[in-house]
Structure formats: C-alpha cells, structure tokens
Amino acid sequence: LVSLALVEIWASNTGVAFGEKFDKLTVVEKNLKMENQILENEIAKDASLTSIASKSASLGFSSSQSIKYIR
Known about the structure:
The protein is mostly helical and 71 residues long. The protein is rod-shaped.
C-alpha cells in the first residue's frame, strides 16, 4: 500500500515536471515563431524593388537614358 502511494506521488511529480517543461517549450516556440515572422518581414522589405532602387542610387548606380550597343 505504501509502495503504491509512493508510485502515485512519483507519477504526480513527474507529470508536473513534464508539464512545466512543456509550458517552457511552448513559450520558446511562440517567441521563435514571432522572431521568424519579424525576420521574414525585414527580408521582404529589403528585397522590395523600391528599397533596392534607392540603395543602388545611393551607391551611384543609375538607370541608363539611352542604351548603346557595340557590334
């Protein structure tokens, strides 16, 4: 009878410990998903044509007014 009570206490403590670990992992997962979304948004913003055009202009690149071909 005492051994059954000890097993029940151990099982209860183990369940609580796993529950706490699960909660911590859930919070970590939520934070990683949020960070991933932020990074995806930054990549999309930096890859936009207007952003690339303004960065290239600041580096001295410009669109050609007339194209000359060499034959």
